[in-house]
């Protein structure tokens, strides 16, 4: 178990977490004593533990609560329920019309997800929206307050940068989760905004891979506010940003959600390591790609699911997509003109990954992604010259939690998520630009996917408490 906690008042001495009879001393993750982590090892699999948290004085810091470990990798498990969502970040707003969804409404949406008692949640990217460069905004009208608020020549920790980072990031994460998820593990993947920029390629700046300072901001946010990925025997220990000196054996960007022999979800950040090397470019490095291919080829797990931080299946004409499509003058996607700074190697890597998914033996090829502010489901029948009609790849947009009504693709870019020319995509649910989440039940013979949506424009928040799925599909039957 890896647990992160932040406190209203700094603690001057390490608190202790008790996991059953094991005592885990807290490790400070900031320099002020407000943020602490607890890394408990040597626990028994598939066991519900009582947890309690005490200050150095012995005084309880909160009520005790339960948390269960997963079954061991070789154990037979017959059911796993996962809650997936994306884009939970954004500054607090008190309006349903302007700004991001009010935190209280995000809480309500997530609590409805939790009411179905998932075993685990996947928060797929964009936990913090505080873009520093915004190169698409004309220079004259650009607000450089955010950029200027950091000293990019200084360290993040132990300087004013740490204070600025906390003021920017904590209100977007801490109250959204609160203690609601303390008995439901959350796997947090990072995407572009977690590096404090939108993915943009302009003549002035290409925002990814992230500049060094913004990489440190992303690492610092993760260190303080959400857990890294725990080690897994089947994931190489030396993938990039794994086993980095100050983080022991955890991984920052590439994770495994393994639940016995029933399911394995491969989580990968496609921004941190992306390269701009033309036909040999990639969103992930060759060794990360090899790990994914190897896991899809391995046979010991029933279901293997890909969870990249941006979506196969659709395009909104943005720079940092798998696909070359760009908006033409009439606002439609086209591949007739080149997308500036887009790299053909990204698409080649996409095709290699899709080919591995479709080639999996006796499994449902499934990919669940983040980044895109929509909920939808499609079946990929073709990618370039690759024919998947014999076993289409199901691709799901899991649903955004915090998006501003002005932040949906149609509002920002004038186009709803659309299948790119490279694909034949059967859209069973055309992307819907509403808030939502997805539940996936992994069973020995099938995967049941349920999509939930809520329309901020027409529905009162009250209906969130009784929200039911609007689309259900059984995969593998
Ligand atoms: Fe994103």
Largest sheet: 8 strands, mixed
Taking pLDDT < 50 over at least 5 consecutive residues as the criterion, the unreliable ranges are none
Overall strand count: 23
Helix and strand pattern:
EEEEEEEEHEHHEHEEHEEEHEEEEHEEEE
Helical residues, percent? 10-25%
3D structure, described in words:
By secondary structure, the protein is an alpha+beta fold. It has helices spanning 103-114, 145-149, 160-177, 212-225, 286-297, 344-358, 409-413; strands at residues 2-6, 16-19, 22-25, 27-28, 35-39, 48-54, 65-68, 80-85, 120-124, 186-189, 254-259, 263-268, 303-308, 326-327, 333-334, 366-369, 375-383, 386-387, 393-398, 423-432, 435-443, 446-454, 471-475. Strands 11, 12, 13, 16, 17, 18, 19 and 20 form an eight-stranded mixed beta sheet that branches. Strands 10-9-8-21-22-23 form a six-stranded mixed beta sheet, with helices on one face. Strand 2 (16-19) and strand 3 form a beta hairpin. Helix 1 crosses helix 3 and helix 5 (286-297) runs parallel beside helix 6 (344-358). The model has no long low-confidence stretch (mean pLDDT 96). It binds fe (ii) ion. Residues 125-126, 191-193, 371 line the site of fe (ii) ion (FE2).
Provide keyphrases for this structure:
alpha+beta; globular; eight-stranded mixed sheet; six-stranded mixed sheet; binds fe (ii) ion; 477 residues
């Amino acid at each position: 178990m890896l647990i992160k906690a932040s406190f209203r008042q700094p603690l001057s001495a390490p608190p202790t977490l008790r996991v059953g009879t094991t005592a885990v001393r807290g490790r400070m993750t900031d320099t002020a004593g407000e943020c602490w982590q607890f890394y408990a090892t040597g626990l028994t699999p598939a066991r519900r533990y009582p947890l309690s948290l005490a200050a150095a004085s012995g005084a309880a810091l909160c009520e005790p609560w339960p948390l269960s470990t997963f079954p061991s990798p070789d154990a037979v498990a017959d059911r796993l329920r996962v809650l997936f969502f994306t884009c939970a970040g954004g500054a607090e707003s008190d309006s349903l019309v302007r700004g991001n969804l009010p935190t209280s409404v995000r809480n309500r949406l997530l609590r409805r997800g939790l009411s179905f008692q998932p075993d685990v949640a996947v928060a797929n990217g964009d936990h913090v929206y505080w873009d520093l460069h915004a190169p698409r905004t004309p220079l004259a009208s650009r607000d450089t307050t955010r950029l200027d608020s950091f000293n990019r020549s200084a360290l993040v920790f132990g300087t004013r940068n740490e204070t600025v980072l906390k003021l920017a990031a904590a209100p977007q994460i801490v109250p959204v989760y609160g203690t609601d998820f303390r008995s439901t593990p959350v796997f947090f993947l990072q995407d572009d905004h977690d590096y404090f920029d939108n993915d943009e390629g302009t003549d002035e700046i290409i925002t990814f891979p992230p500049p060094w300072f913004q990489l440190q901001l992303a690492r610092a946010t993760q260190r303080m506010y959400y857990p890294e990925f725990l080690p897994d025997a089947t994931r190489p220990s030396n993938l990039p940003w794994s086993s980095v000196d100050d983080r022991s054996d955890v991984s920052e960007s590439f994770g495994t959600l393994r639940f016995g022999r029933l399911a394995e979800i491969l989580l990968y950040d496609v921004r941190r390591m992306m390269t701009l090397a033309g036909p040999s470019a990639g969103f992930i490095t060759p060794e990360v790609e090899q790990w994914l291919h190897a896991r899809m080829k391995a046979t010991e797990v029933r279901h293997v699911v890909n969870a990249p931080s941006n979506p196969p299946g659709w395009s909104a004409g943005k720079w940092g997509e798998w696909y070359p499509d760009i908006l033409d003058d009439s606002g439609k996607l086209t591949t007739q003109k080149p997308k500036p700074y887009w790299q053909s190697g990204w698409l080649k890597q996409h095709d290699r990954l899709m080919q591995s998914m479709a080639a999996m033996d006796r499994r449902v090829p499934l990919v669940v992604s983040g980044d895109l502010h929509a909920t939808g489901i499609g079946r990929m029948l073709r990618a370039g010259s690759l024919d998947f009609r014999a076993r289409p790849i199901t691709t799901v947009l899991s649903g955004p939690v915090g998006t501003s009504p002005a932040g949906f693709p149609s509002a920002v870019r004038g186009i709803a998520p659309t299948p790119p020319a490279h694909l034949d995509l059967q859209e069973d649910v055309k992307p819907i630009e509403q808030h939502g989440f997805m539940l996936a039940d992994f069973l020995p013979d099938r995967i049941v996917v349920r999509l939930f949506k809520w329309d901020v424009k027409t529905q009162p928040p009250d209906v969130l408490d009784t929200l039911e799925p609007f689309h259900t599909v059984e995969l593998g039957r």
